[in-house]
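1st attempt posting a full record on here, be nice pls
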Amino acid sequence: MKLTELLSDLTYECVRGTLDREVADVGCDSRKVQPDSLFLCIIGANFDGHDYAEEVAGKGASVLVVSREVNLPEGMDVTVIRVEDTRCAEGVLAANWYGHPADRLTTIGITGTKGKTTTTYLVKSILENAGILCGLVGTIETMIGTKHIPSSNTTPDAFTLQKYFSQMVSAGLKAVVMEVSSQALMQHRTGGFVFDFGVFTNLEPDHIGPNEHKDFDEYLQCKGMLFRQCRVGIVNGDDSHAEKVLQGHTCQVETFGLGETCDLRASDLSLFNRGSVLGVRFAVHGLMETEVELPFPGRFSVYNALCAIAICRHFGVEQALMQKALLGAKVKGRIERVEISPKFTLLIDYAHNAMALESLLTTLREYAPKRLVCLFGCGGNRARSRRFEMGEVSGRLADLTIITSDNPRFEEPLDIIEDIKTGIGKTTGEYVVISDRREAIRYAISHAEEGDVIILAGKGHEDYQEIKGVKYPMDERVIIRELLEEGLTHI
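the predicted structure (as tokens):
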């Protein structure tokens, strides 16, 4: 591609060399530089691409895009393009390089503290039931037709994202639904295109720390950036932060929620417990009139489904198809039901902090189980406070807690467990300790009683356990199946 084409829509200054170049590759990873490539000098939390300018030029990079001065030897045939912010430039360069594939897709971006993952899968389920091929980009995976690519970030970097969009177009997909993290918005990973729909689920304090957001206000402001990058904003009107998230928005706005002022409203919520299935029914009013039944428990499931309906009604999906898709939807590791007995409920969920665990256990309590059994551990090399807090939450809300191991990383599992026990010690909750997670799951199933609800919390979609820097295969779904094949008995 000609350099001038690659730089289109960018404000820049050529401070060295010529614009009359052909570019053979683009990127920002100094380890992957190819001859005649463009290298983008990104400033990260622990690195600065500008420091590698001479190295990548020596490897054959013929164009450097920078935001500050770089030192290069005299006589080196390199073009240097200066922009105000290389992160802002990345999205534009990526979109130009891949030929603006987002223009040939209906793009849906979902941001919020909770509910992003589940809502993306619900949207995909509804659209594909209606015959609209839809890609997905999110925390668990990227889905392009039948191809599943495991994710390392909720929202990938701009070059990877545009590559995925390009592959979706080539595969004949018509839409893409994706999770948009606050970090991604802050770092302009979704730059270079405008979302057709920007969606806000909710906001609670999270992702605040040295390598994320400095405070809640910055977190909120980053979420709000989506609504200056979309055509239609679909917002949870019940969330107390909705108004601030929308400050400065440039899009048309619709709201969903349970409140009377919301454009799309849910009412008449009723819980049901059918064998091992915990679900909820509700009516929809306002922009659409229909009845919905979900095989997921709780009020937050209503919000997720209502959000998906608010999005998919723009695609003209028939109500009957929406109802069918929602009833059959499944999300790996998000209140995921594992069917092994009609007499008790076994669920897998990613809840791995106190806020998520409290929301989950409080919801499950509403179904009046004979016993609520919570199996969980805490990850190593993370804030110790999380262990005390999760222990206190489970001790207070569960009838029995099974303390086990999660991803101990470089810590000793028993040290982590002792911290969890300290938290539980503030309550009167009963608990047992079984550090081996496989054996803990065996205990939970073999000791199940009729009417129990058992939740395996913390791992969710993960299919590994990280110990001393090594990720060992460990998928709770596989463990359950193997235990049953070994002859594990349950009621």
